[in-house]
Amino acid sequence: MSDTASAYSPSPPPSVGTNGLTASSPSPPPLISPSVRRINELLATPEPSNGTAGVPSRAASTSSDGEFDLSAFLGGLMAKRVDGKSFSVDPALNAKPRALKSARKESKVENVQDASAQKPVEFHGPLEEDLKVLTSTLMQIVKEHELEKGPESERTVTLIEAFLAASRNYHATGSDEDFKTLTKIARQVHEPTDFLEIGRTFSELLTLGEIAERQHRIRRWRAYRRGESTLHFKQTISDAFEELLNAGLTPTQIRSTITDQMVNLTLTAHPTQATRKTLLGKYYNIAQLLARRDESLLTPDEYSELLESLEREIFAIWRSNTVRRKRPTPNDEARTGLEVVETVLWKAVPQFARSLDAALEAMGTEALDPDVCPVRIGTWIGGDRDGNPFVTHKVTRDVVNFARWRAAALYFQEADALLFDLSVMRSTPEFRKWVTEEVVPSIQVPDKKHSEATLGGMATVGINSYFAADNHSFGQEEPYRVVLAWVRERLRITERYYNEIVSTHVVPLPPPGLVTKVADIWDPLKRCYDSLCASGSALIAKGRLLDVLRRLTVFGLTLVKLDIRQESTEHTEALDAITRYIGLGPDSYKSWSEKDRVDWLVQELQSRRPLVPETWPEKDGEEVSDMTKEVIKTFRTLGQIGREALNVYVISMAQTSSDILAVYLLQKTFGVREPLHVCPLFETKADLENSLATMQALYSLPWYKKQIKGNQEIMLGYSDSAKDAGRLASVWSLWVAQESLMELSNQNGVRLQLFHGRGGTVGRGGGPQHLAILSQPPGTINGRMRITIQGEIIDTHFGGGLLGTAVQTLERYTNAVLIATMRPVAAPKPTWRAMFSELSEASCDAYRKIVFQNPQFVEYLRAATPNPELGMLNIGSRPSKRRAGGIETLRAIPWIFSWNQTRFQIPVWLGIGTALENAIEKGKLPLLLEMYDQWPFFKSTMALVQMVLAKCDIRIAEYYEHRLVPDNLLPIGVELRKQFMLTRDTVLTVSSQHEMLERDPVVRRAIEARVPFMDPINLLQAELLHRIRKANETPTDGKASDDILLNDSLIVTIQGISKGMGNTG
Fold first, then answer.
1. Residues 594 and 675 in one domain
2. Would residue 460 count as lying in a domain?
3. Is 270 a catalytic residue?
4. N or C terminus: fewer CB in 10 A for the chain?
5. Residue range(s) defining the domain that contains residue 92
6. Catalytic annotation on 1026?
7. In this structure, are 987 and 1027 located in the same domain?
8. Choosing from 723, 951, 1026, 1059, which is the catalytic residue?
9. Catalytic residue among 270, 770, 797, 1059
10. What is the pTM of this model?
């Protein structure tokens, strides 16, 4: 590590010669060719003339003593003009204080004039306009904010301008000199307030750019559906139907398949959402305003008002604190997850279902029945206690009660609206008879015959209360209103009941009329629906009423079904305590062999006698640990909650059949009368390879086969397997495990549903899901799929303030699963399988050689990345480690997060270059090219690696190393950069491309738009880490306020880089 200002000079990458490859150039090319680098006219890049057109003279920015002169650099830069435009982001940046408001006014007028012209939906244009509005607005606000502080703060704006201009230059030329200029500017930042303001500026630029990109994707999606644009991938429901029809499948077959199809998207609380909830709401508002900009009928006044609203939101963001001061609780996380369901998915699901119905009818078949929708929403939030001691049985109970309260409130609103919508008088005789003979008497029973309940300090309520004043609120001529008034009253009682529980944590006696199961609401509403359809009012029935029935189908009474997750060792500890208590021989459960465990578990599962007294371990359980008592309390709580609110019990680190049987016995012992299905989670490479033997042992047990009733769910862990063995070995282990488990299940007459534990990043199984689903092993989807939606990916898929984003997500998953089910990919050739297996082993060996076998690697990780500082973010309730130890105990999220921050991302690509080089040297390049061309799984694997490589920047990673890593660890960095170049070259060779993302313009555009803002914030973060760590090593009597500012600045850079990279962990 170095402290001298002139010490850093980017080292030339190593030359890597490979058979069939050209040796790497001495300096890596820019991320993307400058010829296509035109995202935003605010950062317009001049075509280089002699390599340096538009770049100020070096002499102009270097003082007589050789030190970098910031003012001279910026002055020379601003003197240059390109196509008549200043290098500045916005005219307001260059304005003098008195001219600032005038510049802002001119900018607004220009934006209004731009909006008046109709423009086609093209690939870049509308995105450029959105970026222009957002970035210019932000920079105006930054300028104003700094001017309020006085003349001394002008240096901050100068540094921001210099960063922007130098970054633009660097990405125009890709030269070492221009990168070195960027590093010199970073070293000019000294004041803690400058770190914070500059970091916030680039963080917000990246966030606003991400919002604009997301809105543009929706814009082009909608244009495609109108026939006004083309998409790189066709992923709508109509596209899927068209492809299947062209393949010779019939409309009846397609409808039958999608009727039976089920995609379960499971929200998790994994700590990868780095943005505060306070700010997320403002970003959602900005997204909505951008969507409004596309409305062609806005008047100039309306458009000007829209711009003012945008400015207001951005100004509020700038004046808000972006730093979390405390870690969220599991209850906080649960409420955030449910908010996504309430505000987005509640509207998106019916809209998605209507799109599906329209596509079916256009194909000549009937729409789906009201009780059919091929998506479900689940959650782990409040149920995932694996490694998180803060998720207790009380938290799980509270989360379910909160969900029931919010669901009742939402259904009450819908029933209230339906009460006034369905003023229809005509109905079937059967319906009218049911209303007269069953509904009306249940409403009009005398108050003295109908008991009521008092809810805490609330007024007395009961099923009669609404009708007490007038038992004939609606006449018999409006039968639907009679039913809906009855339903609405039951929902009001239910909402107040759970509201009281949530507020006081006291559970009163259930009042009469309380809704306890979906059928309480479904049955009367479905009778209304059937009567309307049969009596000539189907058009009305298929409006709001159908939407509510669909919501009941998808969301139930808790909005989401909750999974419970716990690590297998905790169940082992509980059973060990039980066997010690009941005195089974000299040894207890933990010391038994696997055979002895299974034999005993099956025996007890079949026994009718209680295993322990109901009062244990509260009584006579002095030797039982607190953790084991908590495990037992959790099972008792599950029995009290009831099956309708719960989904499955997931066992992390599942390794043996006894791990699964143990959970069934604990459910039986502690009062879960309707036991949850148990879902083993196979995570590490070894566990994946052993999963077949584990399930084979279970399927051979008659008790188990009877218990599961022909259905089994198995979860596959992408994160830990990748951390354990590297990306290539992980995906191959997962592929083989899926094939084997599906074949075994089919042989045993069991319908297997695979649950994919994917994270947001490629390193944790993330990436474009449509391609990933279509690349799964043939026959492993079969119309059923579960997948986790984690952390910031919840926002990407369902949030963002854009309803279209959520609908697009639901369509994309449904499209891919339908095609994968009805047109599965062909089985790979034996030669392809053998080649991938060989690549897997070679890449795993190369990966582990560095990550696990080098004793200094953990030290390098903690020095070269912000890994030790990630805890400052307070982005999740769960600790970052399962227990003390090295890489193997570090959770996958901080492992990935750390390398994302430095833009090195070694968990994705490390080892792949060595494996490919070995194969190429053996003359296997033609085979690799054939695999890439004909095998979707291999192609998608290479495509995802290539996407990650395109986001990497080894100059940035090397600068972190230069500033932070001790000399004795530098050889590790040299080897990693060598491996990076090798992987880059071999992946390009195998994919027959000359530069990254040559055939993926959408992702390429997204990266191009972000990269100019990324480098300054990365360099700033490296400087902050250097300064903070140096201060911690040698404490001084400096200002505590400075320390807080520096720590806050670091958090801001972490948030900004997360947005720029598109994810955290």
1. yes
2. no
3. yes
4. N
5. 38-231+277-320+1013-1065
6. no
7. no
8. 723
9. 270
10. 0.85
